[in-house]
Amino acid sequence: MSELKKRIRKKSAAKPGKAGGEKYFLRLFVSGVLQNSVRAIKNVNQICEQYLEGNFKLEIIDVYQQPALAISEQVIVVPVMIIKHPLPEKRIIGDLSDVKKVLEILNCG
Amino acid sequence: MILDIKKTPSSSKLKKTLTGINGFDEITDGGLPKNRPTILCGNAGCGKTVMSMEFLVKGALKYDESGVFMSFEETKEELTTNMASLQFNIGSLIAKKKIYIEYLEIDKGPTAEAGRYDLEGLFARLQHAINSIGAKRVVLDSMDALFYDLDSGILRLEIRRLFKWLKEKKITTIITCEIDSGFLSKNRLEQYVADCVIALDNRTINQTTTRRLKIIKMRGSVHGLNEYPFIIDSNGISVLPLMSQLANQQLTTNRITSGIKDLDGMLDGLGFFEGSSILVSGSAGTGKTSIAISLVHSACKRKIPALYCAFEESTSQLTRNMRSIGLNIEPFIKSGVLKVYSSRPTIQNLELHLISIQKIIEEFKPKIIVLDPVTNLMSEGINSEIRQMLAHFVDFLKGLNVTTLFTAAITQETVKSNPSDEGISAMVDTWILVRDIEENSERNRGIYVLKSRGMNHSTQVREFVITDNGISLLPIYISPNGILTGSAKLEQTLKEEVAGRLLQNKITSDNSEIERKRKELEERVALLRDQFESEARALSQTGIENGYKEKSLKKNKNEIINLRNKIKSSTEKSKVRNT
């Protein structure tokens, strides 16, 4: 949990720019330390660093800590990455281990 | 094993959560398994959502248990609106934090799968919802929605985990799902929840749709095995049979008059037992309704509330028709002591009828109920089902100590041809048969008490006449040729009257003959007496005359003697002188 918080803080700190400034705005909903979520966080970080070249904003949200956001984003399955930008909005569910597929959907690969 | 049995005291018996749904808690022996998930499966439109929502609403209103409704199909607004038609004020319950509704949208834009996932989002939202109002009840409606897009292998694991999680949280849950074929849910959810499975069904027979409920499984608990019809109306769900009060049946020896003095006379002279069920059967036009109205009329006169369920006539028709035989029920309807429930049987199915009637009973609390005619209710649906339902209904009414009178167009002949009709008679305490007696091209009514439990009833057939002043029973006329009724009876009476009169005439004429003879005799006697008297008089006259004669003769004789003596002495004197 603490590691997760650290990561979230790190990402937010690294990219404090206003929303919409970056090409990619990603929201990853996870659940605590459950395996799928931990893997997803690892995978998303890797993908962002490797392929998005700093041109992204990533929010990692724990559904238990921010249920209101989970409700408003209609999160049921976790982990889920919501691609807020570029439009149209898309969703990728799963631990993002299928990197090829993720990149395909992100349109960068 | 033996130890296990010893370790199972009654306290470990499966605890139940009362649903508050009419009739449901009775057939399940106390409601749903407490703190456990229950599968509620059924096809589209059979009432899963309504039932589960009522579970929450009743929980909030009756048992002070708040509930969470997780809807996968309808939005919060849709649900609130839909339930408003059922008099469930969801809005105010939400405001009072008694109910929490959340819509879970499965299909939220294009979604791709990239790796393994779980349902933690649902868990988190559920936990949030439960904590926000301290819920004890949860509904997930319907889980099938999840199966549209997601991997079923993952889902199975996750649902199993979810049920376990809900159990640990001590939440009584209803999970709805579609029914596949038979009584198995589409996605075989019941294999995860082995405790309680309830199936709802929506069946159309003879163009009348009936909803049914069946408890497929309820581990560790007694439950009814049958399919139970249920209805959804503005008050929510009501499951039949309504047998809640059956156990409290209080027998009474009080009697209630039938409103027909002579009929009371046939029933020990006292009438029916209070709270008993009475069947008045007979073919069409035998006066069943009139008998029923007589009972109601006499009760209403004594301010006893009565409910009249008319399935053939409208209220105004009934009022008019009964006025014609001198039973005016209109003032009773106006004063509220009599309620008429008038409805065509085809408008809705029997369940709806019975439940509507039950609702009136609960509000109005009548002491007398008439179902006229009960056979009309049987016109729709398979006979045996209806009979069963009626039997339950009769039991229910008996439990309330309500005197129930049914009319039915069954006769002993139809019982012979359709033995199942006998079933109706088995459930009633008193069976009065009104029978046509057809003779001399005329129809008359005979009435008799076929059975009457617990009383020494008359076994006579009586003639039954409907007059301008209600019903009266005449003693049946027994002639050498059998039973006579109607004009045959009248004719026989006339005949005998004429004969009597003739005899009477004969007697009078005989009497006058005697009188005449006596007069004649007397006259003759008088005549004879006259004769005699005149004769006697004549005789006595001669007697007198004879007396006179005798006297005069004597006198004459004496005179002659005297004369002679005189003559003799003078001659002697002369002789002497001469000498």
How would you describe this protein?
The complex is a heterodimer of chains A (109) and B (579). By secondary structure, chain A is α+β, with helices and mostly antiparallel strands. Chain A has one domain (2-106): 3-Layer(aba) Sandwich (Glutaredoxin), CATH 3.40.30.10. Chain A is built from four helices and four strands. Chain A has a four-stranded mixed β-sheet with strand order 2-1-3-4. Chain A is globular and about 30 Å long. The termini of chain B are far apart. Chain B folds into two domains: 14-109 and 116-239, P-loop containing nucleotide triphosphate hydrolases (Rossmann fold, 3-Layer(aba) Sandwich), CATH 3.40.50; 247-475, Rossmann fold (3-Layer(aba) Sandwich). Chain B is an alpha/beta fold. In chain B, strand 20 (430-439) and strand 21 form a beta hairpin. The A-B interface holds A 29-32, 34, 36-37, 39-40, 43, 63-64, 67-68, 70-71, 73-80, 88-99, 101-102, 105 and B 102, 104-106, 108-125, 127-128, 146, 150.
Set down the secondary structure blueprint.
The complex is a heterodimer of chains A (109) and B (579).
Chain A: H1 2-14, E1 24-30, H2 35-51, E2 56-62, H3 67-72, E3 80-85, E4 90-93, H4 99-106
Parallel strand pairs in A: 1-2
Antiparallel strand pairs in A: 1-3, 3-4
Chain B: H1 2-6, E1 16-17, H2 24-27, E2 32-33, E3 37-42, H3 48-62, E4 67-71, H4 76-84, H5 90-95, E5 99-103, E6 111-113, H6 120-133, E7 137-141, H7 144-147, H8 152-168, E8 172-178, E9 196-205, E10 208-218, E11 227-233, E12 236-239, E13 255-256, H9 261-266, E14 272-273, E15 277-281, H10 288-301, E16 306-310, H11 315-323, H12 330-335, E17 338-342, H13 350-364, E18 368-372, H14 374-377, H15 383-399, E19 403-408, H16 412-417, H17 422-426, E20 430-439, E21 442-452, E22 462-467, E23 470-475, E24 477-479, E25 482-484, H18 486-578
Parallel strand pairs in B: 3-8, 3-9, 4-5, 4-7, 7-8, 15-19, 15-20, 16-17, 16-18, 18-19
Antiparallel strand pairs in B: 1-2, 9-10, 10-11, 11-12, 13-14, 20-21, 21-22, 22-23, 24-25
